[in-house]
Amino acid sequence: DVQLVESGGGLVQAGGSLRLSCAASGFTFDDFAIVWFRQAPGKEREGVSCTTSDGTTSYPASVKGRFTISSDNAKNTVYLQMNSLKPEDTAVYYCSAWTRCDGDLEVWGQGTLVTVSS
Q1: Does residue 65 surpass a pLDDT of 90?
Q2: Is the dihedral of CA 23, 29, 114, 86 positive or negative?
């Protein structure tokens, strides 16, 4: 089965850090762009990072300088290091595989909840 499983979410105080993990099974990351996106209640889905097989990364202004995406190909796992968290970062975070960063969504995980308290 093709699957993405996220972990690492939780409750953290504003200014704190969390690292999310995304483990893939049934496929390898090399074939896809991996995107972390988030969705807060009542808000639209927002992409927060993307990494491609050549190591290119991208971030929106809302998280640039605070979030870092990285991958461990040996473990077929992608990480999202989130620092200087703000209450507005509260959301369910999803890991997903796309044909390219702005391409078509192919696979997504079940999500992990991140709650940032003020």
Answers
A1: yes
A2: positive
Q: How confident is the model at residue 28 (pLDDT cuts 50, 70, 90)?
A: confident
Q: Give the residue-averaged pLDDT of 47-67.
A: 95
Q: Alpha-carbon distance 23 to 58, whole Å?
A: 20
Cα–Cα dist 101/49, whole Å: 9
The pLDDT score that the predictor gives to residue 93 is 98
- Do residues 111 and 5 touch, judged by C-beta distance below 8 A? no
Place of tokens 């996106």: 37
**Residue 78 to residue 30: CA distance in whole angstroms:** 11
> Which regions of the chain does DSSP assign to beta strands (E)?
3-7, 10-13, 18-25, 33-39, 46-51, 57-58, 67-72, 77-82, 91-98, 105-108, 112-117
